[in-house]
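Supplementary material to the annual report.
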Amino acid sequence: GENVEQHPSTLSVQEGDSAVIKCTYSDSASNYFPWYKQELGKRPQLIIDIRSNVGEKKDQRIAVTLNKTAKHFSLHITETQPEDSAVYFCAAGDSGGGADGLTFGKGTHLIIQP
Amino acid sequence: DAGVIQSPRHEVTEMGQEVTLRCKPISGHNSLFWYRQTMMRGLELLIYFNNNVPIDDSGMPEDRFSAKMPNASFSTLKIQPSEPRDSAVYFCASCMGLAVTGELFFGEGSRLTVL
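Predicted assembly:
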């Protein structure tokens, strides 16, 4: 099955700086890579996703990049704000009709220092 | 739509007791997932249903865990007998489609504490 590794487990950055979270995956069949944000005590919610036919996707202050050859993908948050503080999960899955659900990384606790 | 609805939100029970967690997916979604979240292991997929049929239960930790989906609007996850190591937040999630092709909508979670 799929194995997703996520780093770092904790990331502390100054408000206004950029944050980068990296993930690797093992199954070359995976072609869908979403990122979920979970605020303290809340449910995980999708913030951005990328499919294997593109290498980069951007939505305002967040962007994701994907390197299929190396089997890694990253989340970039620019101009960080206090409300960005949360746990971020990467995930990998096969959207081609396979029976598997998403496999999540263990999460990164992002702390934005004022 | 009210989103994915889970109950109970919190459950505290004693070791050996039976625990039943409930989930109502978003209307029209035909895939339903049960995840377990702990600090040590993150979000783990326990079981996945499509059109009410269990597709992948390889994540169910052991025979003490069972899940059912008797109809498109209701699923249960049962632990019998419960053990302290089962303490976790259990999330139900739903989406459209056979596999995960888009957003996975999570419920608020059920926080289980087994004493």
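The interface with chain A takes residues 33, 35, 41-45, 48, 50, 55-56, 58, 91, 97-104, 106-109 of chain B (CB under 8 Å).
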